[in-house]
């Protein structure tokens, strides 16, 4: 397991953009497949986007396709979720997850490492 730290959450108006970052202080993420999940109040946690260890393969939930982009920077040791055209329905706590595998994982149960989450609030 690796300790993951998210950053970049905050308050944004509908239609706006926000980028979330995930890193692992003191550890390399170069062999980890990474994912972003979110959980809104009163709702179950859901998969948002995933990226494999070298960034060649990505996977997105249908509700974010065309709006969100997941990417990774090997040098900066970060995984970024860029979110655009945000709506109030995107309001949630966003979690970064990782696992040392070459697959893109979409199920939360398949990830071994998690961050503490970062709040994203989209206002009208």
List keywords for this structure.
124 residues; seven-stranded mixed sheet; mainly beta; four-stranded antiparallel sheet
What does this structure look like?
The protein is mostly beta strands. The protein contains no helices and 11 strands. It has strands at 5-7, 10-13, 18-23, 33-39, 46-51, 58-60, 68-73, 78-83, 92-99, 113-114, 118-123.
Q: Could you give a short description of this structure?
A:
This protein has 124 residues and is mainly β.
What's the structural blueprint in terms of helices and strands?
Layout: E1 5-7, E2 10-13, E3 18-23, E4 33-39, E5 46-51, E6 58-60, E7 68-73, E8 78-83, E9 92-99, E10 113-114, E11 118-123
Parallel strand pairs: 2-11
Antiparallel strand pairs: 1-3, 3-8, 4-5, 4-9, 5-6, 7-8, 9-10, 9-11
Main beta-sheet annotation? 7 strands, mixed
Number of helical stretches of at least 4 residues? 0
Order of helices and strands: EEEEEEEEEEE
The proportion of strand residues reads over 45%
Estimated radius of gyration: 13 Å
Low-confidence stretches: none
Proportion of helical residues: under 10%
What form results from the Cα inertia axes?
Answer: globular
Identify the quaternary structure here: single chain
First-to-last CA distance? 38 Å
Give the tally of β-strands: 11
What is the residue-averaged pLDDT? 96
Supply the helix-strand structural class. Answer: mainly beta
